[in-house]
Amino acid sequence: MKASSANLLSLIKGPKQFVIPIYQRTYSWHQAQCEQLLRDILRISDSNQIHGHFVGSVVYFQESIHTVSDVPRLLMIDGQQQLTTITL
Fold first, then answer.
1. Is 68's pLDDT higher than 70?
2. What is the pLDDT of residue 31?
3. Hey, is 46 helix, strand or coil?
4. What range does the domain containing 80 cover?
5. 65 occurs within a structural domain
6. Is residue 13 part of a domain?
7. Distant-in-sequence, close-in-space partners of 57: CB < 8 Å, separation ≥ 6
8. Which of 6, 10, 17, 60 could form a disulfide with 74 if both were Cys (CB 3.0 to 4.6 A apart)?
9. How many domains would you assign to the chain?
10. pLDDT, mean of residues 11-22
11. Which of helix, strand or coil describes residue 11?
């Protein structure tokens, strides 16, 4: 297992497919959680003092080796609520 810190844009940029396994809970964020995340993002964008925001851990597993022409499939283990909200 390899853990690393990454910028959110670098995580979602490029060709890849995040797959959420059936055993993961369904999307459950409500408007209050979405609004809090949006407020946090807007607060950071308005500040010269704050250079980032920890949205939570995103844990994924690459299912198999892929060729250059394939789109890598990444199996989401944790972080699907945050990642789904941000992409929506």
1. no
2. 93
3. coil
4. 20-87
5. yes
6. no
7. 78, 79
8. 60
9. 1
10. 86
11. helix
The answer to whether the CB of 52 falls within 8 A of the CB of 30 is no
| pLDDT of residue 27 exceeding 80 | yes
Domain annotation covers residue 6: no
77, two tokens: 């283990």
Whether this prediction's pTM lies above 0.85 is answered by no
Average pLDDT score over residue span 41-67: 79
Q: What are phi and psi of 62, to 5 degrees?
A: -80, 120
Tokens 């993961």 sit on residue: 24
End-to-end CA distance of the chain: 29
Nearest C-alpha neighbor of 84 from the set 63, 56, 64: 56
CA dist 60 to 20, 45, 69, Å?
9, 27, 21
Residue 63 lies in a domain: yes
* CA atoms of 81 and 28, how far apart (whole Å): 7
Q: Which of the pair, 69 or 41, is modelled with greater confidence?
A: 41
